[in-house]
Write a structure and sequence with these properties.
The protein is an alpha+beta fold. The chain folds into two domains: 159 residues, 2-Layer Sandwich (Beta Polymerase, domain 2); 81 residues, Orthogonal Bundle (Hydrophobic Seed Protein). The protein is built from ten helices and eleven strands. The strands form three sheets. It has a seven-stranded mixed sheet with strand order 3-4-5-2-1-8-9. It has a two-stranded antiparallel ribbon with strand order 6-7. A two-stranded parallel sheet has the order 10-11. The longest helix has 16 residues.
Length: 254
C-alpha cells in the first residue's frame, strides 16, 4: 500500500506523461505485493520504494516533469532529482510532500550482456512488451497503470504480458529465458530469497537453469565480479525467518 499523498503524486506523474504522449506504470515489488494481498491474504505493508517505467527516455521525462509539476502545483512545488544513471536510462526522484518515498523512473529498454555477470548495454525503446523480458522474474514484471482515467489503460489497471498473475496465484518463481542466471547471476540469490520469503516454489525449468548456473565452472568468478550485489542479497536472506529454505536452494550443486 501507499499513502494517499503518494497516490496523488503518482496520478500527477501519470497525467504529465499522458499529456506528453507517453504511458507510465508502477512495476516490480509494489505490484507483486499488492496482488499477493488479494491472492494469498498477505498482510498489507506500506511500500516506500516505488519503481516506475515509462515508454520514453525517463531521464529526459523527469526534467520535463519537474517544470510540469511546478506549473500545476498549487504552491508551485516540485521534486528533486537525486540520482541519474545515464548508463541504464534511470533516474531517482524525491518529492518534498512525500519525503519518505524513493521513486525511480526507468526507460523502457532492451539489454545485451557482453559477458556473463557484466552490466548490460541498453537501448531505449518506446514499448512495454519488448521491455518485459529483460526483467528477472515474471512475478516482478507486472505493470500497474498510473495513467489518467481517460487513457487506454486507466489508473489502477494491471497489465500482464508474461503470465505473472498465474505464477503469483500458483506461487511460482519463473525466469524469462535460459541465460537469465548467467546474464545476472545475482538472480540466483533473489530466486532463492523470494521462494523462502513468500513460501513459493522455483518453477521446474527455472530451477534446472539455476542449478546449471551454480554448477558452471565460472560461477566463482561471477560471485567475485558481482560480490557487492551478492553480499546485499545474502544480507536480505540472512534476515529472513525462513532463511533455511533459501540456503538449501543455494546449496544445490555447490
Amino acid at each position: 500500500m501507499i499513502s494517499d499523498q503518494a497516490k496523488i503524486f503518482l496520478q500527477e506523474l501519470g497525467t504529465a506523461a499522458y499529456s506528453l504522449g507517453h504511458e507510465a506504470y508502477i512495476v516490480g515489488g509494489y505490484v507483486r505485493n499488492h496482488l499477493m494481498q488479494d491472492f494469498h491474504q498477505v498482510p498489507a505493508q506500506e511500500c516506500f520504494d516505488i519503481d516506475l517505467v515509462l515508454n520514453t527516455n525517463a531521464i529526459e521525462f523527469a526534467e520535463r516533469f519537474q517544470k510540469f509539476r511546478q506549473d500545476h502545483h498549487p504552491q508551485h512545488l516540485t521534486f528533486e532529482i537525486t540520482e541519474t544513471f545515464k548508463q541504464f536510462g534511470t533516474v531517482k526522484i524525491k518529492d518534498p510532500e512525500i519525503p519518505d518515498y524513493s521513486i525511480e523512473l526507468a526507460s523502457t529498454r532492451t539489454e545485451v550482456y557482453p559477458e556473463a555477470a557484466d552490466f548490460p548495454q541498453i537501448t531505449i525503446i518506446d514499448n512495454f512488451e519488448d521491455d518485459i523480458p529483460r526483467r528477472d522474474f515474471t512475478i516482478n514484471a507486472l505493470l500497474e497503470s498510473i495513467n489518467p482515467m481517460k487513457s487506454k489503460h486507466p489508473f489502477g489497471e494491471i497489465l500482464d504480458y508474461a503470465g505473472g498473475i498465474s505464477d503469483l496465484q500458483n506461487k511460482l518463481v519463473r525466469v524469462f529465458h535460459k541465460d537469465s542466471f548467467i546474464d545476472d547471476p545475482t538472480r540466483i540469490y533473489r530466486a532463492a530469497r523470494f521462494a523462502a520469503e513468500y513460501d513459493f516454489e522455483i518453477e521446474t525449468q527455472t530451477l534446472e537453469w539455476m542449478q546449471a548456473a551454480m554448477n558452471d565452472e565460472r560461477y566463482p568468478q561471477w560471485l567475485e565480479k558481482r560480490k557487492n550485489r551478492f553480499a546485499i542479497e545474502m544480507g536480505k536472506i540472512e534476515s529472513l525467518k525462513s532463511k533455511d529454505k533459501a540456503l538449501q536452494l543455494l546449496a544445490y550443486g555447490r
